Structure formats: C-alpha cells, structure tokens
Amino acid sequence: MSTYSPHQLELYLERIRYPGSASSTRLQRLQQAIQEDPLAALTEIQHRQLASIPWGNSALHYSSHRTISIRPGCVFEKLIERALDGYCMENNNLLYTVLHSLGYTVYPTGGRVCLAASEAGYPGVEQLYTGLSHMVLIVTVNGAKFAVDVGFGNKGPTSPLPLTQDTVSVCMTPTEMRLVYDALPTFVDQTQKVWIYQIRYTPDSRWIPMYSFLGNEFVPQDFEIMNFFTSQQRKSWFTQTLVCTRMFLDETESAVQGLYVLSGKEVKRRQHGQTDVVATLESEQDRVQALAKWFGLHLREHEVEGIRGLVSEIK
C-alpha cells in the first residue's frame, strides 16, 4: 500500500501543528513519542488533525470539476499542500496513510450512517441506516484494537475508541461516546452483529446511534465505489448541501474543547454544551470569507465561480 515520505510526514505534522523543537524535527519527536506510548501518540495525532483539517465537502460545490479523488497523493495535495477540507474518505485516508507510514498496524473498514445523525426527529429514525458510505480506521495498539475516525464532522469521535462493549469516554464535554456490539434493527438475522458508535449529549440523556461499522478490512476498490456514489449520486446529501466543520482544542491542547460548523447561512460555535451563532451569511462573498476566517480555506477565483447555478449557492 501507499506510504508518505519523511518530507511529506513533516509537512503533515506542520499542518496539524504538531510541536517540534530546535534539537529535533517534528517527525523525530513523534517517533520518540510512539516508542514511549503509542496510544497517547495516536490520540494526540487524532486531536490535532481534527483541530487543523476541516471536515467538509467544498470541492463538490466550489470547483469546476465537482469530483473527489481519494488516492493518497491527491488527498495529500488537497488537504496538506492546499490546506483545504475533506470528507470521511479523504480525511481518514490521509490519516490511514500517515499511520501506516509511521509503523502503526492499521486497516480501514466501511460503515453505514444512521439517519439520526442528521437530527431528524421522526419516529423510527434511529433504526434507519444508509448503505455503506463511511470509512473508519481500525488501529491495533499493544494487542488491542481501537476505532479511529477523523471524518464524521461535528458528532464524530474525538479520540480512539476501544473495540469493547460500553466503554464510555468523553467526546467533547459534556457529550459522551461509546461503542456497542449489536445487530442493526433491520437485519433479518439478528445474530449478525456490528459495532455501533453512539453519543449522548449529557451524562443523563439517552444514547443516539451515529453510525455502524463492520470491523473487517476493506480494500481500496471498496472505497472507490463508495466514494463515487457519495460524491456523484444526485440524491446524495453531499451533492446538495455545503457544510464545513473544524474542531478546536483547549488551552493545554490535550483535549477537543469545541467546534465551528458552517451549515446553511450560519457559522456556529459549540463549546461546553452551548451553541452560539458567530456569523450570518447573506451572500456567497460572506460564505467565502467565513470559510477563510473560521476554517482556513482559501479558495481560488475559479473555484468560487464553480458554485454558480447550483442548488447550494446563496442567492
């Protein structure tokens, strides 16, 4: 499989603002951290990528081609060299190649998104899932497997999740997260189980399923099919709506504290269970400026022109 060169890894670490020092490169510092505590190093990488590389689908709206490539070289150019956003099969593919290049035992698996993740409130929504359309990484550390995901936007996990039943951890205070191993409600054979990622917004609220994943290894050809459908199908939510999310860390840079999300005509900041509108977008110029200010996305003129005439354009 593909790997990134030491120079590319240095550029990646610079992009996610991994700390360095005068006596060693960022890569040398990270390699030492992996030797000392591979799980802690993995957690820090995940935190920093979430806080530095936005989750979004701008290429399907602000471009002339409106396509997405998940080849490692194309992903690197887009997310690192251009410093743009990406969705699950881009952001997780980037991390997959990075972790493999660093020596981690890692493979990707496929998942189904629960319609409850959209915050729809109609009866039975928590039992309904899409077809295979999500990518999750399975990383083995000291003999234990963890699910790692940097591509699910504002409700995604913020640290590695052990593949164990009901291990509750903090996602983004006060939201908590866990995995359960169970059959999907629509399965005919209820003995067939999958991992289900769930969140609850407060410790005393109910658990809501976000997505499920199989756990077995997928090959690149699987994701080529999934990516084509997700990015090109006219019924796909990603082709109809522009969204962008970026998390941010606390003062000690040891945990995810909050996030910014652009959806519709607003940019919102969520932190400590509170949501505030930080920008209202009245025009395309407003949104392009907001993408630059809050998410670090600097679009070229021909990319901005690409949204004209689309249903997602602010008119």
Automatic annotation (TrEMBL):
Keyword Transferase in annotation: yes
GO MF annotation terms: acetyltransferase activity
InterPro entries per UniProt: Arylamine_N-AcTrfase, Arylamine_NAT_domain_sf, Papain-like_cys_pep_sf
Keywords assigned: Acyltransferase, Transferase
Keyword field contains tRNA-binding: no
Gene3D superfamilies in UniProt: 3.30.2140.20
Family (UniProt): Belongs to the arylamine N-acetyltransferase family.
Name the record gives this protein: Cysteine proteinase
Protein source organism: Aspergillus ellipticus CBS 707.79
